[in-house]
Amino acid sequence: MTGIFSGLGGHPDTQQRLVDTFSIPEDIRPEVVQNQTDALRIIWSHGGHESLYKWDWLQVQKADAHFPHDLRYFDANISNHAPTVPFRAVMSSDGEVKQWINQIRRWGFCFVDGCPATSDDTQALIERIAFIRTTHYGGFWRFTSDLASKDSAYTQLALAAHTDTTYFTDPAGLQTFHLLSHTGGEGGASLLVDGFRAAEILRAESPEDFEALCQIKIRGHCSGNEGIAIVPERAFPVITTEEVKPGKPARVIQIRWNNDDRASMAGLPLEDVERFYRAARKWVGILRRPDSEYWVQLTPGRALINMDDFISRWKTLNFSKDEILLSV
Questions:
Q1: CB–CB of 108/194 below 8 Å?
Q2: Beta partners for 220?
Q3: CA torsion sign, 152 to 157 to 162 to 164?
Q4: 218-243 residue pLDDT tens
Q5: 17 Cβ partners below 8 Å, 6+ apart?
Q6: 225 contact partners, CB below 8 Å, separation of at least 6
Q7: 0.85 exceeded by the pTM?
Q8: Minimal CA–CA distance to 46: which of 29, 32, 58?
Q9: Are the C-beta atoms of residues 102 and 318 closer than 8 Å to each other?
Q10: Total Cβ atoms within 10 A of residue 228
């Protein structure tokens, strides 16, 4: 065991803290400190409790050392080297699944080639990563442009670059698209735009607009289907960031953008409404630049797994349980 779990009393199986933190005296202090080969040993005052802090755990507790953030931004030129893995490999090897997830986390999406064009095989592919989240659309489902659900995705209308389920408090992270059949028709190309890249361009070109989209909170809604009206429990900004270090630029960690599903801005101060529209106009201009847009025609046998809201570029996708435990 490492860190707080070995040193301060943790359950060996559940990895949960067992010590009542607030029963520890405020004036507790180390009485013995020893450097050992693989750990720092401390004996504490007020009872002589002994803690062992593994060196690898202490190493990752340093500021901004929890996990590498080796994210890559993509643009239209990604068509020449789009991340791709073979279906047979990820279905037969957990090591290949790790490499697959690494690609998704790094680039925000990854193709899987050679997937049989069936619902069962596509579902099995998805479940190599995780369980399928059920929503009002279902869990795993097939659809076409028949307005079976009252959503523009069920029409033949062209959709602008967006993230889905902005009307959920916790939006969808990973999504999978697999074109099972496309005969006797044309069109239907898919559009991928790197929201993180667009956010950094916005920050560089127009810092005040970047700040506006980080500060002004808006809501989405889903209201097309009879008996269904969904809104998040609170409003959210288009761009969510986290502080890395004092004095350093905040890191973008989430994009929530769907102008089609955007609710009204009632209740916001007029100056914020004006700031938002000015910033959103600049933001959309960046999203629509030709070098931002990666257009690709999906085909049967080639599944696309993408980070729809980019939040899943977080650490839990690419690290083992032991590595993640080191950071807690």
A1: yes
A2: 262
A3: positive
A4: 998 887 667 778 888 899 999 999 98
A5: 4, 5, 8, 9, 10
A6: 136, 149, 150, 151
A7: no
A8: 29
A9: yes
A10: 11
**β-bridge partners, 42:** 33, 51
Q: In a 10 Å sphere around its CB, with 0-12 CB exposed, 13-18 middle and 19+ buried, how is residue 193 labelled?
A: buried
b/e string for 106-122 if b means 16 or more Cβ within 10 A? bbbbbbbebbebeeebb
Nearest to 109 by CA among 193, 198, 200, 168: 193
Residue 159 reports pLDDT greater than 90: no
Tokens 């667009």 correspond to: 198
- Cross-strand bridge partners of residue 86: 113
- Residue 211: pLDDT band (50, 70, 90) is very high
Spatial strand order of the sheet with 50-54 comes to 30-35, 39-44, 50-54
Give 3-state DSSP helix, strand, coil % of the chain, rounded to 5: 30, 20, 50
Q: Residue 291 CB: number of other CB atoms within 10 A?
A: 11
Buried (b) or exposed (e) across 304-322, using 16+ Cβ within 10 A?
A: bbbbbbbbbbeeebbbeee
Q: Is the distance from CB of 232 to CB of 252 less than 8 angstroms?
A: no
What DSSP string runs through 228-260?
--B--SS-EESEEEE--STTSPPEEEEE---GG
Return the half-sphere exposure (C-beta side, CA atoms, 13 A cut-off) of residue 188. 18
